[in-house]
Amino acid sequence: MTGTQTQSLQRLKQHFAQRVINQARQVLELWQNLHNSEWSRQDLVNMRDAGERLLRHAKRFEQFAHIAIAKQLLEVLAAVESNANRLNSHAIESITQLLQELLQTGLRQGESIDQVFLPTVVRKPIYLVLHCAEQAESLAQQLQSFYLQVEVFADADTFLQAMAKRYPAVIILDVDFIRPGYGLELAQQVKKAHDSAVPVLFYSENEVTALTRLAAVRAGGQAFSTGNLDAANILEKIESWVSVVHAEPYRALVVDDSKAQATFTERVLNAAGIMTRAITDPTQALTELLDFNPDLIILDMYMPECDGPELAKVIRHNERFVGVPIIYLSAEDDLDKQLDAMSEGADDFLMKPVKPRHLVATVRNRAARARHLKTRMVCDSLTGLYNHTHILQLLEDACERAQKLRAPMCFVMIDIDHFKQVNDTYGHSMGDKVIKSLALFLKQRLRRSDQIGRYGGEEFAVILPNTELHFAEKIINEIRLRFAAIRFPAQDQELSCTFSAGVVAYDGTLDSAQLADLADQAMYKAKHAGRNQVAVL
Ligand SMILES: Nc1nc2c(ncn2[C@@H]2O[C@H](COP(=O)(O)OP(=O)(O)OP(=O)(O)O)[C@@H](O)[C@H]2O)c(=O)[nH]1
């Protein structure tokens, strides 16, 4: 085969790789949409179509893991269809499990990194509509170093044409684009012409009046910045606007001595994509709590062996379950009794018969809040990355998984160089900004299946499942080069930072603590060898 033929074959392969990834993403997105709606016949059809497309593309590209997952997904969907299109907990669990696997399945090793490691947080482009061309170019460059796609517009027509073709992740719009106040008019035009609300970040070089800010809100502005536009800040905003819904379905444990009521509750919740386990014997509740790990518990008030408030107390006595919301679902209409029951550590009271919509909304709201609190416990407050304890826990899980599946896995330790100097020269808040930027940078560059933690002050840890050592080294090195190229506006100058990293591969025998230790050693090797480099061990 000639060099040109090999190249075009490679391009073709990459083209299909991209398609497989896109199809997998579509299936995931369809499933996630169910978090806000109720399962219908149309959902089944859409998921099946997306699953079939994934299977077709995966076959063409010979992605065997994707083929196996797509086939199993289609089987589960066929079972749902033959069960009068009723989603039950088993189907919800199977689909979730398969989609998790899909998320974990990188493409075959050896493919181009650009295809495998697609930016995960913000993929759509950013439209930059600024009055000053020089400022637009410099901001575009900064944003690009964060792996964002940027399109710069110098006139309104080209911008409006682009809007008609593709929606961006965000529009950064100068209120004084071309002439004073024209940016606001342009935003109004966009708002009228397009149903889909694209977030607009308004910008003005100078401070503006309250009236201009009000006009910006009315024109659909999501935020307003004045003075310096800073890429990290913009990415942080966009990330919060596009943050992905939690992919895991909610889990509810239903305790009701009436089988008919328990089944009714289960059906209503299942149709909303909520996994349910229903039990009629309250003495089994603790065992089920441990086994099923629900986001919340729905309790009947009156049951023969032990009543609801007693059970609530027993549950609350267990340290592990103090935070799990408890909702009563009972025919009791005496307000005093309801309040008494609530005083035993319950969170809500729903009267039977309850409207399905009311039940679903209550469960979703309570479960979302409980998850939010749980997330805060495992995440670092400055960066939103996993905290030290949690990333080590995740590393333990990753080692187990890699050993079970005999899959490659790498662990990386990253430490910003001479960080003390950044704090000493530019102040602690500038130091915080650099830490936050590196966090955003890693999130934006790595795959969704990779896990990133803030290991210590200016130290980060990354778990790369399904990744060979040479690949991990290549990616971290590429990230290192890009990060070093970022210029952070600091006072009236610019600041740049570098990092040193240590990369180690799981060999199937080490435990997570040993692996972390080795990564630390590798990172120190990089520091001793002069910093701003990646060392492997
Ligand atoms: N701004 C800020 N600084 C932090 C934070 N956590 C730790 N630091 C600072 O990070 C600095 C780390 O300094 P050192 O461990 O001496 O290392 P270094 O200056 O980065 O030098 P090398 O790692 O040897 O390249 C200390 O001054 C800490 O106070 C934080 O959350 N924010």
From TrEMBL:
Main subcellular localisation: membrane
Keywords, sorted A to Z: Nucleotidyltransferase, Phosphoprotein, Transferase
Enzyme's top EC category: transferase
Modification type 4-aspartylphosphate: residues: 174, 300
GO molecular function, one term: diguanylate cyclase activity
CC annotations in GO: plasma membrane
Start and end residues of each GGDEF domain: 407-537
InterPro entries recorded: CheY-like_superfamily, Diguanylate_Cyclase, GGDEF_dom, Nucleotide_cyclase, Rev_trsase/Diguanyl_cyclase, Sig_transdc_resp-reg_receiver
Cited Pfam families: GGDEF (PF00990), Response_reg (PF00072)
Cofactor: Mg(2+)
Domain Response regulatory per the UniProt entry, residue ranges: 125-242, 251-367
Catalyzed chemical reaction(s): 2 GTP = 3',3'-c-di-GMP + 2 diphosphate
GO biological process, one term: phosphorelay signal transduction system
Record-listed E.C. numbers: 2.7.7.65
Subcellular location: Cell inner membrane
Signal peptide interval: none
UniProt-recorded name of the protein: diguanylate cyclase
Organism: Denitrificimonas caeni
Organism phylogeny: Bacteria, Pseudomonadati, Pseudomonadota, Gammaproteobacteria, Pseudomonadales
